[in-house]
Specification:
The relative contact order is 0.32. The radius of gyration is 13 Å and the shape is globular. By secondary structure, the chain is mostly beta strands. Strand 3 and strand 4 form a beta hairpin. A 5-stranded antiparallel β-sheet has the order 1-5-3-4-2, covered by helices on one side. Helix content is 10%, strand content 45%.
């Protein structure tokens, strides 16, 4: 049995901000890259510099950055409570 997943790429504007923060939450199932970073700021910069990134989860205790190719508005059913994560998303100007 084969499972295929369709990835839809959306054009992203160059100007973006990351103002939205939701503690104890994460977006699951949309991670395109996982990296260890020293801070949430480093994670935000990675997301801003990754064309397919629209949001990220930051796990403070593990200093783990998860870049997502979706956000809570495009995938509301995948937005979950996660006591170890803080969720951020890009807002385009």
């Amino acid at each position: 049995m084969y499972c295929f997943r369709l990835l839809v790429l959306v054009a992203r504007k160059h100007e973006a901000m990351i103002p939205l923060e939701k503690e104890m939450s994460a977006l699951r199932g949309h991670v395109i890259m996982t990296i260890h970073t020293d801070s949430e700021l480093d994670c935000a910069l990675m997301c801003l510099n990754t064309r397919a990134c629209f949001s990220f989860n930051y796990k403070t205790n593990k200093q783990l950055c998860q870049l997502n190719h979706a956000n809570k508005f495009t995938s509301p059913g995948d937005f979950i409570w996660d006591l170890d994560s803080t969720y951020y998303e890009l807002v385009f100007t």
